[in-house]
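User: Hey, quick favor. My workstation is busy. Could you predict this chain's structure for me?
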Amino acid sequence: GKTVDHVYFPTTCTASLVSTTQDGDTSELALVGRDGLLGVSLVLGSAAMNHRVMVQSAGRAWRMTAADFQKELQTCQPLHQLALCHVQALITQMAQSIVCSRHHAISERLSFWLLASLEALPSQQLRVTHENIASMLGVRRESVTQALGKFQADGWVSNSRGKITIQD
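Assistant: No problem, here it is.
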């Protein structure tokens, strides 16, 4: 419910839009990387955000004040169109996430998350812990560790403390 003061345009980082329950459990709503923006509520005409943003892979992002962004949305049609396309992409990602959480195994959900993260970054390496991934997927850390162990045994990833490198 806080007011958005700035919009961020990730270039070499990723961040998750996260919902938190009253008990403190979290689930990722969507992942934003170099092809998106953080502060999407401003695109839709609201100055407040109803979820948290959590950086998943550290890096760089461009920042713009909310006031400047809203002004540019009104005067720059290409920016407005791109921002609306990003909103559509987030809705699509959220819909896929809902379907996956109900119908797919943890290994399938983890695969999707890893590939989405990889697509959003300029490198093959993710700097993220099993605990953070588990929190985003709404599963136990041990389940993520087991699935990543299988992925590593199959040669798909190399996995070390706080780093996952996609091999295949």
